[in-house]
Each structure stands twice: as structure tokens, then as C-alpha cells.
Amino acid sequence: MLSEKTIGVIKSTVPVLEVHGTAITKRFYERLFTQHPELLNIFNHANQKQGRQQTALANAVYAAAQHIDNLAEILPVVKQIGHKHRSLGILPEHYPIVGENLLAAIKDVLGDAATEEILQAWAEAYGVIADAFISVEAEMYEQSREQQGGWSDFREFIVEKKERESDVITSFYLVPKDGRAIAAFKPGQYISVKMEIPGERFTHIRQYSLSDAPGKPYYRISVKREDAQGDKPAGKVSVYLSESVKEGDVLLLSAPAGDFTLEEGQRPVVLISGGVGLTPTVSMLHELAKQEKRQVTFIHAAQNGKRHALRQEVERICSEHPHVSAYWCYSQPTEQDREAGAFDKEGYIDLEWLKSVVPVKEASYYFCGPVPFMQAVKQALSEWGIPSGDVHFEFFGPAGSL
């Protein structure tokens, strides 16, 4: 337990963290990878360069400081991060390394303002926060290992089938090399793929949503090839998977993880996705199709038909299950799309159109896609008066804010 004095000191630093949080976490990662370059085998290098990881950590530290006297308030965030940590292979021995470099980064950025009293308070607070993460993650590791078909760390899977879904998205059907059972998963969850790419010094780990129904003898991931755009370099892992990995190759996978999952019940469900963000929602759709008492509306936004993945699969589900309907929104439809009447709306998803296709406003809403897309959907649902408890979303990569 932290003393009242320590809690008071931590809370007094909240305004400072609000201003300097990202600078502190940027300095933290610089120190961390200089002193422990082996950790680059775990962290996503692209998220580091884009600043997403630094922002996510700054937000987490800020939230912890705000609620240091009642960490139960941020338990959902701890569990969400814990899922990612378990999937990546973060272990208890990593936490002292993080703590040492975080405190040093605070000192580096704040200078004389980081008094001995503040640093000591943060050292104590970090110990409590780290213990909370370690405890939650220990349970997750145990559950992952002990469940039927489960395993710890990474396991070898063979690419049984590789299937092109669109101009930029490719599906990989993965079966265990050892021929044994695989762990069940909840629709919306993801696995981590650990890659050793020729010419790369470090391994790369990426998390991909499982895009098929649970209960199959394989896992399916559907990966968007991230090509270079302007100052943004091509995605090393997605390009390697799309262009170099072949059927019969072996990939290393962690067991399924993640908390972006369906709530039980009989309420109507609205699934909204943009681009490759349809991977978790398609998995959810498979599950919901079996629940005939739940009305389901599937809405997907794509650039055009050439970039629209898994369309036939979704339309087949709709044709077989009358309680499921689907709508397509194309921002840049081709002439072929227009001639075929292949979409329901041109442009972007907006509130007026949402109201016209969602049959029942009182529903559970799940959405995923690029951050600007999710910001627009979140804003539309907020303007419509949808309660926050009915709104669920998933970031690809470090958590951000909408």
C-alpha cells in the first residue's frame, strides 16, 4: 500500500505529466533501447517511429497517476494492455528494466523539477503498478497455457493456404505443425506472429485479428500489405508476409488474446469496419449468424471493389441468415463498381446514412479501422446519443484516443 504522502506527491505530478508525458516516454524508449537493444525483438519498430507507442505509454502513465489511490479504476486498461503483453511475451523480469529507465527519463526531461521526493514517490508507485500488471499477466499466461489446445510463448504453425482477398489483403490459413489441438478463441481476438526477416537484425512481432469463425482446425488471419506512402515506409512484416511467405512455410504464433469481444445477450448488434478493420468484425459476424434472435447489421467502408476483402463471404452469410444484413460504402468507386451497383453509399460513412441503414438504434455497436475512420464513427454515434457503454472499438497497434 502506498502512503498518503506518496499518493499526494504522485497526484501533484498529474498536470506535469499532461504537459510533458510524451516527451518523457520518448526519452524513456531512447534510453531503454540504447541500454537493452534486445528488447527491440519485442517492440514494434514502426509504432516507435510514428510516435504511437510513446503516446500510448504516456496516456497509461497519466491514467495511473490520476487513479493512484484507486487503481481498480484502471483495471480494464491494465487487462487490455495485459492481453497485448502476454501475446508479445512480456515477462516479470522486464518490469524492473522499464521502471529504472522510466524514472531516469522523468529526471532527464524535468531536470531539477524532478526532486528526490518526486522520484522516490514514483519509484514506489511504479512498484505497485508493475505488481498489478504482473499479477494480471500471470493469470493470463496460466490460462493460455492450461486451456485445451493452449500453449505458452510461440508455437510453430504451417501456412496451409494463402488466399488473395483483394488488391491489398491476403488471408493465411494456419495449422499447427505438431498436429495437436489449437486453443479456442473469442471472435474479435488476435494472435501475434513472430517473424525473422532475412537481412533484419531483430525479430519482428505483429498482432493480427483472427478473421474466421472459432471452432475450426485452423486460424485465419487476413493481412493488409502496407505499401510505402509519402514519408511512411512500407510495412516490413506485412510486405514480407504478402510477397515472400508461401504455402508450406512455418510461422511462429502466440495463443489468441484480446478483449475486443462480443457481449452476451440478445440485443441487436451493429458491426462497422473500415479497410482491413473488418477482420475482427467478420469473425464476430460468423458467431452472430448462429444467434438467430439477434438482429445484425454489418457495415463496411472500403476505397472500392478492388480493395474490398471478404465480400463474398459476408454476402453468403447474409443469404443464409435472414436476421443479418450488410451495407457497403465506397469512397472512390470504380466505373465497374458503378455499373454493377456494387455499393450502397458513395463517400464516407456519416450519421444521416447510419440512421437510414441501422434498423434499431438501441443496439451494441462494434467498430474497427484506421484511426481517422474510428474517430468519425465515434463522433457520429456520440451525436446520435448512443450511450458509451454500447460503443466498443479496437485499435490496431498501441491504444490511442478517439
From TrEMBL:
Catalytic activity: 2 nitric oxide + NADPH + 2 O2 = 2 nitrate + NADP(+) + H(+); 2 nitric oxide + NADH + 2 O2 = 2 nitrate + NAD(+) + H(+)
Enzyme class: oxidoreductase
CDD domains recorded: flavohem_like_fad_nad_binding (cd06184), Yhb1-globin-like (cd14777)
UniProt-recorded Gene Ontology molecular function terms: nitric oxide dioxygenase NAD(P)H activity
Sites where the protein binds NADP(+): G275, V276, G277, L278, T279, P280
Residues holding FAD: Y190, R206, Q207, Y208, S209, F395, F396, G397, P398
Name of the featured protein: Flavohemoprotein
Cofactor(s) for this UniProt protein: heme b; FAD
Species, as recorded: Brevibacillus brevis (Bacillus brevis)
Recorded family membership: In the C-terminal section; belongs to the flavoprotein pyridine nucleotide cytochrome reductase family.
Site (Influences the redox potential of the prosthetic heme and FAD groups): residue numbering on this chain: K84, E394
Residue ranges annotated for the FAD-binding FR-type domain, each copy included: 152-263
Residues covered by the Globin domain: 1-138
Pfam families recorded: FAD_binding_6 (PF00970), Globin (PF00042), NAD_binding_1 (PF00175)
